[in-house]
Amino acid sequence: MKKAIVLFSGGLDSTTCLALARAQGFWPLCLAVDYGQRHAVELKSAQRIADSMGAPLRKVHCSLREIGGSALTSTLPVPLQEPAPDKGIPSTYVPARNTIFLALALGLAEAEGARDIFVGVNAVDYSGYPDCRPEFIAAFESLAQLATKAGVEGASFHIHTPLAGLSKAQIIHQGLALGVDFSMTHSCYAPSACGLACGQCESCHLRRRGFLQAGVEDATRYSP
Fold first, then answer.
1. What's the predicted TM-score (pTM) here?
2. Residue 56: which residues within 8 A CB-CB, separation 6 or more?
3. CATH of range 2-186; options 1.10.300.10, 2.60.120.10, 3.40.50.620, 3.40.50.740
4. What DSSP assignment string belongs to 55-92?
5. How many helices and strands (H and E) does the chain possess?
6. Cα 146 to Cα 173: distance, rounded to the nearest angstrom
7. In degrees to the nearest 10, what's the CA dihedral of 155, 164, 11, 105?
8. Dist CA 142 CA 134 (whole Å)
9. Which of 12, 26, 179, 189 matches a 20 to 30 Å C-alpha distance to 77?
10. What is the phi/psi pair of residue 118, to 5°?
């Protein structure tokens, strides 16, 4: 089995991505990033899910709070409304987050002798983040060949984005077909002190709408 690095947040998308990597015959090594996110409860979900799926998880601490510029890494309020990409990039965008995450995954891949990286970016039901677009992924894949010892010596890195063209409902159906327990996942950007989803942030809106459109019960525990 070929080893693959899976960028893993413990959310709906990354968990489905992990299941897909396994289904495609890869031996997945999960990478979770503690970047100072206000919804750090997702890291607990990531550990529980990785353990339940028998996938080792590495956690990297790389705080982006010192950079700021996002409602997820500062005191800016998380917008409690449905995402509207046509109104611009929302304040929950974290500057350079996916660039940094992929760079960390690339470093781990090179160190572990892996040449495949899975990331659950989506360009259909998403908040309009520029670093979720296919052209960004293609550019980073080209960078990986130039920026690494392995690439210079002839290795080819491949960034897998199996969810890029799927709606949230399609992702849910895909995950269920692979045995994903979505009740273990966390998506909320503004959870309560005890970890319950707010049900009002853009991520919660996307999640709720996805389950509704999929015709599947949403087992998420929302704040009353």
1. 0.95
2. 29, 30, 50
3. 3.40.50.620
4. --EEEEE---TTT--STTSSSSPPP-S---GGG---TT
5. 7, 5
6. 37
7. 20
8. 13
9. 12
10. -105, 135
**How far lies 141's CA from each of 80, 93, 126, 188, in Å?**
34, 22, 22, 29
Judge contact between 32 and 55, C-beta under 8 A. Answer: no
pLDDT tens-digit series, residues 102-129: 999 999 999 999 999 999 999 887 778 8
Strands 158-160 and 26-34, sheet pairing: unpaired
Q: What letter represents residue 148's amino acid? A: T
- Residue appearing with tokens 């992924």: 137
What amino acid occupies position 215?
G
